[in-house]
Amino acid sequence: MQQVPYGSVDRDKPLIRVSFTRLAVITVCLPLLGLIACVVLAMLYHYNDATYTHCQVREPDHHCWTHIPVSLRTTCPQSINAAISLTPERYIWRFSIGLHSAPRFLVAAAYLSFYRGRVWRLKEQLLSGFTFLLALCENVGLLLLTYVSSTETYSVHKSGFILFIGSSLVHMMCTCKLWSTISKYSPNAEEMKSYRLKSRLFLFNLFFCLLAAYFYRRHNTYCETGIYTSFALCEYLVVLSNMAFHMTAYWDFGGKEVMVATPPEGKRY
């Protein structure tokens, strides 16, 4: 292997240089495409397993969206957990979440730095640190519920799910609070657009989280036909709105770049 002096031009060139907007799109598309692939495969090859419920309630066609053509309709949507816990769907989902988790940690650190440069009062500084911790917990919870399925160790999967949902909702709320402070002093149109989207997506996500919890409890209690379908639809909307919330980083870091390079001369340790 050729030895390159530290001061050479080639060595000091950036090793990796990616725009933050592109990184945001890739980070969100990984779980989105993975989820779509899992749902399609589950409905095509594992339909009975994917639509099975503990009380063996089957959802007839007339309880589904009637405006969907029969040729494109299966029966009713299965829950996300059912779609990602089968084989090979679970490996597709784990692969996509594993790839997307590293950029999520990077984005959390980038937001912490961003907030520290935009808020100055101690209360907001502490809130930015707490929001950073919540972002880490959300990502860890997602990894935990992804790599430990409910069919393997239910208690661990349940703990990961609670950690993910709880930290996700509080993270969104704290983020909106920080952005409400930033927006008071920012004339930037992109930042105002990002703040409005964050607020709407948080309320949307919170509403369907509560609705999903209601339908899930009602299904487990009464096993009524059609209720599990309503739960599954709410669950998908919760996950998609969560992805959309994180996608707002597209506007927050427009024009910024992620770069991996050797440090300049005099700053090496």
Automatic annotation (TrEMBL):
Pfam families: Frag1. Its main location: Golgi. The keyword Membrane applies. Residues 20-254 form the CWH43-like N-terminal domain. It is a multi-pass membrane protein. It is found in: Golgi apparatus membrane. It comes from the Eukaryota. This is Acyltransferase PGAP2. It comes from Cirrhinus molitorella.
